[in-house]
Amino acid sequence: MSEMMVPSHGGEGEQRETPPVLTRSYFLRPTLTVARDLIGKFLVRHNGGELLAGKIVEVEAYVGTSDRACHASKGRTARTEVMFGPPGVAYVYLIYGMYHCLNVVTEREGFPAAVLIRAVEVEGRLIDGPGRLCRLFKIDRSLNRWDLTLRQSLWFEDRGVFVSGRDIDQLPRIGVEYAGEWARKPWRFRLRTK
Question: How many domains does the chain have?
Fold first, then answer.
């Protein structure tokens, strides 16, 4: 795919390269690796002429049917079918009947795994919590199964922000106490605040 060029806000006629979209092969990797590497990448939403981008600062990984905190631990269902599909696709679901959550499917087809996007920074403002994030970005179940690798409506970009492993905290996941020992897995990654 050729690089798209968009006018910059600089001098007349000056152009800059559009940041690359994260590809399917990016998500076709071990889920914990993808989760850690998503810190510092950008979630981008194009909706009705409005473009919104947020730097990802917190995610959680969910890995396979043995992970008791993973929705797929109960097997393949109408709800979890998307997790068994190709990587780089959105898994959007509703919690408490009112809050949407955005996940991106990872690893190979047939192995259910995904990364939940928990928090982003938008123009220096922290949008903390997957429900708040989805509300701001206008993400709902109409985007379930959306291909996030196409730069259409919703996608991820690499804007060249370097994040050192020392700047990322690994913490237990939130809201999955029912999963017992699996809830204590340090599979939540959060950018350390300065």
Answer: 1
